[in-house]
TrEMBL record:
Domain (Aldehyde dehydrogenase): residue spans on this chain: 22-480
Organism (species): Paenibacillus silvae
Keywords associated with the record: NAD, Oxidoreductase
Top-level taxon of the source organism: Bacteria
Keyword Ligase: no
Name of the featured protein: Aldehyde dehydrogenase YfmT
Gene3D superfamilies for this protein: Aldehyde Dehydrogenase, Chain A, domain 1 (3.40.605.10), Aldehyde Dehydrogenase, Chain A, domain 2 (3.40.309.10)
Similarity field: Belongs to the aldehyde dehydrogenase family.
Length: 493
């Protein structure tokens, strides 16, 4: 597939989008957009410069003034039109996700659905911005608490779920009356940036409200964060980069929304439905090659059922199809870069040297790493404390429920998690003891619903996305009081 198969020309997918215009970047670097499965160069574009960022932020700031004042029905209409356009262009969007990010069709379909739900949920936000009238102890005073957009939001998008995870911030921010500037991941500038701008442009969003500046983090990343215009920086990506962004933003007293790494675990208790748990674990581990912040890293199984679960899990993993992401039957496609294969194989080899047993996989064809299963993994092994971000499953044994919970919490991360048991209330009680932002009983860890809060604890991030939590994140409250009668002040005549 080439970009010419899409509605937009190749030229459009190499331009920056600033003030409603598709323009060339003015940075020093030329960057390549590469298909991770075929290694084909999809497109070449010139990076944004600091001057481009200045123009983008100033455009968003200026346009946000009028956009803030637009009627709720106007804002809703743009989001509804956006949703309709996504339906019309669904096949194009899915093909772009497959081509640019190495998404399998299974994953691309799921990402499209999740992204569209975010847009649909955000369409209701203009009518959900509620103020308050509060009483006062001062005679004749009326206290009004207003809710209004924060101004301009800077969004730094990831490459793994580029469309969904960018729209998770962009759609709510725009629906609530903010201006937005996106800096998409350099691996996926189309689906994390230009495609979103194109859809909003077609949907009738006024010029300048949304802008896209694409370039390497080393050239423009810090300036994007420290620029004086944006009030909020939303970032989805690694914990290491997130810490740096948090530090830069903190120095500028900017608010952040940081959704970072995960080292998620599934606990399989002795009363669990083994087949159901194994099926869920395979999906939660290997969807999108494990390149999901919510993906399972560790599967912690009660000793009484360990062998039976392990057999079931390996049998199911053997039947996974790996290879061409465009094949509808493929579950495991290419990793985003070849060096990620090398990184993971090095970790697997080290784990074997430390006593883990390689039961499946450990081989690759170019960037496609076959589903890999390591059993008898011990807590002290180096591979246990890392976010793997690849199709490598770690199976661990726990003597009882309490040890399983302790092993689950033995990580700096705390994003998502999973517990399998035939007693849901037992699962709920165990979930309350797990140090993570999200836990799913009798389901795997990869869950995201547009109207429900999303976010992690510890090194997995700061802030919450979704529903009412997104409204809180991208708006501010202000107190304006009205004194309706003369007020006397003690000591003043």
């Amino acid at each position: 597939m080439t970009l010419m198969d899409n509605q937009r020309t190749a030229a459009t997918w190499t331009k920056q989008y600033i003030s409603g215009k598709w323009v060339d970047g003015t940075g020093e670097k030329m960057l390549e957009n590469i298909n991770p499965y075929t290694d084909e160069v999809i497109a070449v574009w010139r990076s944004s410069s600091k001057e481009d960022i200045d123009r983008a932020y100033q455009s968003a700031k200026k346009s946000a003034v009028e956009w803030k004042a637009a009627l709720p029905s106007v804002k809703e209409g743009v989001l509804r039109k956006m949703s309709s356009l996504m339906n019309e262009r669904k096949e194009e969007i899915i093909r772009l996700l497959i081509t640019e990010s190495g998404s399998t069709r299974i994953k691309a379909e799921a990402e499209f659905a999740a992204a569209k739900r975010v847009v649909d949920e955000s369409a209701s936000f203009p009518f959900r911005m509620k103020g308050e009238l509060l009483p006062s102890n001062t005679p004749g005073k009326e206290n009004r608490v207003l809710r209004e957009p924060k101004g301009v939001v800077g969004v730094i998008g990831p490459w793994n779920f580029p469309l969904h995870l960018c729209l998770r911030s962009v759609a709510p921010a725009i629906a609530l009356g903010n201006g937005v500037v996106i800096k998409p991941a350099s691996d996926t500038p189309i689906t994390a940036g230009w495609l979103i701008a194109d859809l909003f442009e077609q949907a009738g969003l006024p010029e300048g409200v949304l802008n896209v500046v694409a370039g390497s983090g080393s050239e423009i990343g810090d300036y994007f964060v420290t620029h004086p215009v944006p009030k909020v920086i939303s970032f989805t990506g690694s914990t290491e980069v997130g810490r740096g962004i948090g530090k830069l933003a903190g120095e500028q007293l900017k608010e952040t929304a940081l959704e970072l790494g995960g080292n998620n675990a599934m606990i399989v208790l002795e009363d669990a439905d083994i087949e159901h748990a194994a099926q869920a674990a395979v999906f939660g581990k290997f969807l999108h090659q494990g390149q999901i912040c919510m993906a399972l890293n560790r599967i912690i199984v009660h000793a009484n059922i360990y062998d039976r679960f392990l057999q079931s899990f390996v049998d199911k993993a053997k039947n996974i199809q790996a290879g061409d992401p465009a094949d509808p039957s493929t579950l495991v496609g290419p990793l985003i870069r070849q060096k990620e294969v090398e990184r993971l194989l090095k970790l697997v080899k080290q784990a074997e040297e430390e006593g883990a047993k390689l039961l499946l996989g450990g081989t690759h064809e170019q960037a496609v790493l076959q589903p890999t299963v390591l059993a008898d993994v011990k807590p002290g092994q180096g591979i246990v404390q890392q976010e793997l971000f690849g199709p490598v499953a770690l199976i661990m044994k726990a003597k009882d429920e309490q040890q399983a919970i302790e092993l689950t919490n033995d990580t700096p991360y705390g994003l998502s998690g999973s517990i399998f048991t035939t007693n849901p209330e037992r699962g709920y009680h165990a979930a309350q003891q797990i140090e993570s932002g999200m836990v799913h009983v009798n389901d795997q860890s990869v869950n995201d619903e547009a109207h429900v809060m999303f976010g992690g604890e510890k090194s997995s991030g700061i802030g919450r996305f979704g529903g009412e939590w997104a409204i809180d994140k991208f708006t501010r409250t202000r107190w304006i009081s009205l004194q309706h009668q003369h007020r006397d002040y003690p000591g003043v005549k």
